Fold this protein.
Amino acid sequence: MAEVVDISTQFRLLPKKKGYKCRCSRVHIVEKSRMIECRDCGAVQDPYDYLMNMAETQNRVMIELDHRRREVAKLGAEIQELKRIKVNLNAQVRRKQKVINWS
Ligand SMILES: [Zn+2]
């Protein structure tokens, strides 16, 4: 007669905690089941789905990073222009003060 294996004793399939939304960022590989398990909530995920989610998240982060880099470059150019305007305005103020002082 074949031995009945209780899966729940081999590896955990149910979350450790309930009532909060876990981001499942700390995971480890369960070699017996060839699955990914969250260290915090115990959620079990398919490795392919986990990698796909990570790749999608990384793709979104890279797009956001590229957007931020372009924004930094644009703001840097605006700062340079404002500095140039400030220098010109200071020079105009000095010239006007000389005119006022001589009259
Ligand atoms: Zn989790």
In short: The helical segments are 7-10, 47-102.
